[in-house]
Amino acid sequence: MVALVLLRVTIGWHFLFQGVAKLEDPNFSSAGFLGQAKGPLGDRFRELLDDWDGRKSLDPENQKEFSARIDKYLEAFENHYKVSAEQLEAAKKAAAARKVQVKDYLAENEQDIKTYLHDLDRLDKAKQSPSRDTPFQQKRNWDAQTRLKGEADGWLAELDRIFTEFQSDLDSVLDDDQRVRGAPPKAETQLDQIDKVVSYGVTAIGLCLMVGLFTRLASFAGVLFLLSIVLAQPDWPGLYPRPHPAVGHSLFVNKEFVEMMAMLVLATTHVGRWGGLDFFIHHLIVRPLFGRREAT
C-alpha cells in the first residue's frame, strides 16, 4: 500500500510540474510535437494542425484569404478601439498597402509555389504506394516532407511578417488612451484548443494524483494521454526516423510506455483511498448510497 501511494504521488508530481510549466510558458505549443509525429498515425496527428504544410494557404485559389485576414483584423481593430474617421482612413490605407505587398510577394514566388504544391502531391502518392513501409522509402518520404515543410515555412513566415507589420501600422494610428485597451481579441484556433486541453488536463491529472482525488479516473486519463504520446512517437524496429541517441535505446517500451503501464496499475487499485481524498468520498458518499445494494 505504501509503495503504491508513493508511486501515485511520484507520477502526480511529474504530471503536475509538467502541466504548470506549460501553463506558465506563454510560448508553449503542441505544434512541434504534432508536426514531428511519425509512424502509421503520423499524418493523422498532423491533421490536428491547421494547414500544417501550407497547402491550403498557398493554393492559388485560396491566396485571397491573406487579404481576408487583413480585412478581418481591420474590422476587429475598428470595433475594439472605436477609432475616429481620420484614424479609420489611415488604417484602411495601411491595409490596402499591405494587400498589395502580399499580392506582389505571392506573384514573385508563384512558380516556386506551384512546384511546391506539385511535389506535395507526389509525396502524398508516395505515402500511399505499396513500398511505403520499406526503410528506403520511409527515409525518402520523411526527408522530402522535411524539405517541403522548410520551403512552406519560409513563405508563410514572410506572410506572417507582413501581417505583423500591418498590425504595427494600425497601432501607430492609436492614441495613448486607446493603446491601454490592449490588442483586439484573437480568434481561437484548433491548436489553441489542443494546447489548453493538454496544459489544463496534465495539470488536473497531476493534482488529482497528488491528493488522491478521483484517482482511478485521473489515472485512466493519464493512460490515454501517454498512449497518444507513444502512438505519435512509436519506438518500433525499422521505423524512420530513429529516436535521437540521447533518448537511449529501446524496443517498443520507452519511458512513456513504462509510466503509462504504471498508471494503468493505479487505475485498477484503491490507491486513492490510501492516504487520499478518495477515502472521504468513498465513506461519506459511495458507501451510504451503494453500500447496502452491494451487501445485498
Defining traits:
mainly alpha; flat; single chain; 296 residues
How would you describe this protein?
The chain has 296 residues and is mainly alpha-helical. It is 71% helix and 0% strand. It contains 13 helices and no strands. It has helices at residues 2-24, 31-35, 42-46, 55-58, 64-81, 85-108, 110-128, 135-171, 176-179, 190-211, 215-232, 255-267, 278-295.
SSE diagram, text form:
Elements: H1 2-24, H2 31-35, H3 42-46, H4 55-58, H5 64-81, H6 85-108, H7 110-128, H8 135-171, H9 176-179, H10 190-211, H11 215-232, H12 255-267, H13 278-295
Helix pairs in contact: 1-10, 1-12, 5-6, 5-8, 6-8, 7-8, 10-11, 11-12
Task: Tell me what portion of residues adopts beta-strand conformation.
Answer: under 5%
Largest sheet: none
In round numbers, the mean pLDDT is: 91
What percent of residues adopt helix (DSSP H or I)? over 70%
Give a concise summary.
The protein has 13 helices and no strands. The chain has helices spanning 2-24, 31-35, 42-46, 55-58, 64-81, 85-108, 110-128, 135-171, 176-179, 190-211, 215-232, 255-267, 278-295.
